[in-house]
Write a structure and sequence with these properties.
The protein is mostly helical. The protein contains 19 helices and 6 strands. It is flat.
Length: 421
Amino acid sequence: VDLEERLCELDLRSDSDVPDVPPPTDSTPEILKKALSGLSARWKNWWIRGILTLAMISGFFLIIYLGSFMLMLLVLSIQVKCYHEIITIGYRVYHSYDLPWFRSLSWYFLLCVNYFFYGETVADYFATFVQRREQLQFLIRYHRFISFALYLTGFCMFVLSLVKKHYRLQFYMFAWTHVTLLITVTQSHLVIQNLFEGMIWFLVPISSVICNDITAYIFGFFFGRTPLIKLSPKKTWEGFIGGFFSTVVFGFIFSYFLAQHQYFVCPVEYNSETNRFVTECEPSELFQMKKYSVPPLLQAVLGWETVNMYPFQMHSFALSTFASLIGPFGGFFASGFKRAFKIKDFADTIPGHGGIMDRFDCQYLMATFVHVYITSFIRGPNPSKLLKQLLILQPEQQLSVYKTLKSHLVEKGILQPSLRG
């Protein structure tokens, strides 16, 4: 039996026999190492994580200031890096560096799936822009067929690359690639979909996960005594509970601040005349201050009978609750994945934190929840999007839609039959 196939059989039999993956090297800057050299390992890790966290948050605020387009580029960059980290683990675990074509095919499939999803976004949100570009009209009209043809090409290339005595390994990596695409590309696409609904739907969920991660770590570091889950021995109930309450309060306050500004609450739209993304609108009812009656039980505690708040703040409670109660299970899932393959972190990109995927393992669950939440409880008919699609139609089709709509409005008594138009 070929040695490589034998190793694969052992991999399937027992988690304890999974081939060891070389641990990532320590990427902590030398200056920081010298400055913290007198501290214990526990406090050294605390300061490294703290300093790098502040640096990342500062960079995130800078990108927010630069606008929605830069946020989209950030999401795409994170997606590519997370994909790279997971795929690289697959190469190491299954010793598949020498498999023919497979490294190239992995990245080819990433390009195909991104082409499909982002092409759908362009067709959906930039219809007016596409209408003015004849070369793009063909690509949009046959977008799904082109996407399928591209994927089918990669599929055929994979079949042609199959080599005797490597079949099992190659199918392992084929499945590994597709699961990685599901985790990274589809979820990052949902993040951008949420961003188009308004930057607040992007910032509040992401910030809630970040807040929960930080506060759970702080509460666990200082007060943690009771282990939470075996997959993550350092996680404690004290950190989990402290993170929950902190995140709910943070989400409520942060939502109040963002809801006051059009820049954060207006849907992100592309202005084809200026070739820029714009966030200008009349804020919806979600972002208009309203007066609410305080429940009798809380009146005695707070001393208030009514309270003024934005309706979105109540939705922020649902977002924060998910971020702090369910979001961490994305981290637990990642912990189980790393334990299965005997690795500490996905990579060593960020000192004290591990790889990019180590920082964003909870964000992908959050992105899916926000998208489902918006489509289920928030989003209604969008006249603006419908109008964009009508403008793509041929003149005779537009006239037919106009006559049908006019006839319908006359039947309802909204228009007078004698009205000409």
